[in-house]
Amino acid sequence: MTWTETSRTTAEAKQDIPRRVILVGPPGAGKGTQAHTLATHLGVAHISTGDLFRRHVGGRTVLGERAQTFMVRGELVPDEITLEMVRDRLAEDDAAGGFLLDGFPRTVEQAVFLQQLLRRSGTDIDGVLEMHVGEDEIVRRLAGRRTCRECGRSWHVEFDPPRVEGSCDACGSALAQRDDDRQEAIRRRLDLYAQQTRPLLGFFRERGLLVRIDASGPVAEVGERAISAVGTTDHSGHTGHTGHSGRS
């Protein structure tokens, strides 16, 4: 299944310029890994809102300092700050020929902003790839994570276990399960994700942009499904990484 070419300019269609794609999926779906694989395949910029916030906060930019005032209080960063960050990032040279957005938009309002922004430059959203994983599988992935108290290295009791149970191979310190990786917390996060994204997915579905793939199984197989769904020429010669999707 592939997207139509209606949102691409005639010049882009002729030159097979990479698409403008949005990647969505719940916590634990493996978006980060697949975003890198897919962006490399398409030859486009991978734009993660998580990386974007870290870049601005770490760089002490005006937007970063504004965002930080909300983040330190555990509050959501207002849309106006997020939208300005995204707008500035999409104006950078490496995003001119295409991009893969990971973590944005999260609401219908943000999606409308993105469409209007792109249309002003004569382009549009080409497709939205939804990574679907069953709730029990996500809980299995996230609840198995263990983090070293000292060096911060992450392990997984099933997919990437340390040699000695409960002890970090890197430094020998004790491993712990984060509070947000406990089953009850994970299921609450998944419920919240479903509530927040249902209208957004409906918005994209109504416009014929949404494609869903099965994101369970080995990383390489999920990557192949994603590439097949996008249905474009491989610009890099790479098809992704191997391994198991035990981490997001």
Can you walk through the features of this model?
The protein is α/β, with parallel strands linked by helices. It is 44% helix and 13% strand. It contains nine helices and eight strands. The strands form two sheets. Strands 2-3-1-4-8 form a five-stranded parallel beta sheet. A three-stranded antiparallel beta sheet has the order 6-5-7. The chain starts with 9 loop residues before the first helix and ends in an 18-residue tail after the last helix. The N terminus and C terminus are likely disordered.
Features:
248 residues; alpha/beta; 3-stranded antiparallel sheet; 8 strands; 44% helix; disordered C terminus
Total number of helical segments? 9
Mean pLDDT: 85
Structural class: alpha/beta
Shape designation: globular
Main β-sheet description? 5 strands, parallel
Strand content: 5-15%
Rg value: 19 Å
How are the elements arranged and paired?
Blueprint: H1 10-15, E1 20-24, H2 31-42, E2 45-48, H3 49-58, H4 62-71, H5 79-90, E3 99-102, H6 108-120, E4 127-132, H7 135-143, E5 145-148, E6 154-156, E7 175-176, H8 183-206, E8 210-214, H9 219-230
Parallel strand pairs: 1-3, 1-4, 2-3, 4-8
Antiparallel strand pairs: 5-6, 5-7
